[in-house]
Amino acid sequence: MPDIKTHRRINDILLGPLERPALRWLAAHTPGWMKPDHMTIIGIIGALMIAASYGLTNYYEGFLWLASLGFVINWYGDSLDGTLARYRHRERPLYGFFVDHTVDAFTEMVIFLGIGLSPYMNFTIACLALIGYLMVSVLVYVRTCVKGEFKISYAGLGPTELRFLLILINTYLYFWGNPTLQFFNVSVNFLNLAGIIVASLLFLICSISSINQARQLARIDP
User: Fold this and answer.
1) Domain coordinates of the chain in residue numbers?
2) Which residues contact 100 (CB under 8 A, 6 or more apart)?
3) In 27-154, at which residue ranges do the beta strands (DSSP E only) sit?
4) Residue 164 to residues 74, 88, 93, 160, 206: CA-CA distances in angstroms?
5) Is residue 46 over pLDDT 90?
């Protein structure tokens, strides 16, 4: 089994050509007193802001803008903690891997439950999307342990793309609302349909990737 401290990071996302130079610039211009742990805390604050904002949309839809700001803050903290450590050559492979991904599980739960508490998405559908996201996360961590590859992008999509998509959806919801769509005498609103599609894709990605990975390991470890 590969050493977790020497795993290879694979993050071939669609927004990578924009994100990677932006993160390098931010790391270079981050004040010296700010540490990677500070960035992790900022990411948590962003997730809590997202959840609270979605809950407050029950009273005023303008809180969708605050939720979108929360996604930016969450991206800033979550994406920059590891980048900052690598830029300053202050990596802590075991501590960083453990803290980063346990915090990720917490923030994912907070964000999806916040969406489920909004008037836009059914709580059960939000929980299904959360389960799918956590299943893919488990796949990523197990794959890291058995193959030494930390692969967080599938078909060019990763957490950054999901945040960007949710910001676009928030903008749509604010200006055009949450329309109800009709499919064969079944009514479903826009965000519930989006949640069902996301959950289905996550389950599909997890299933196909798990089967393919098991086949590869069966050849390596007969």
Assistant:
1) 4-220
2) 40, 81, 82
3) 149-151
4) 12, 28, 28, 6, 22
5) yes
Cβ atoms of 71 and 47 closer than 8 Å: no
Condensed to tens digits (0 to 9), the pLDDT of residues 11-24 reads: 778 888 899 999 99
Looking at residue 5, its pLDDT comes to 64
Q: Which long-range contacts (CB under 8 A, 24 or more apart) does 97-101 make?
A: 97/4, 99/37, 99/40, 100/40, 101/137, 101/141
**Residue 93, beta-bridge partner list:** none
Token pair, residue 108, equals 């994912």
What Cα–Cα distance (Å) separates residue 127 from each residue in 59, 151, 192?
Answer: 22, 24, 11
CB 103 within 8 A of CB 40: yes
Domain 4-220 class, CATH top level? mainly alpha
What pLDDT, in 10s, does the model give residues 114-168? Answer: 999 999 999 999 999 999 999 999 998 888 888 878 877 777 788 899 999 999 9
The per-residue pLDDT for 3 is 65
Task: Count other Cβ atoms within 10 Å, centred on residue 34.
Answer: 12
Nearest-angstrom CA–CA distance, 76 and 163: 11
Distance of CA 78 to the CA centre of its chain: 9
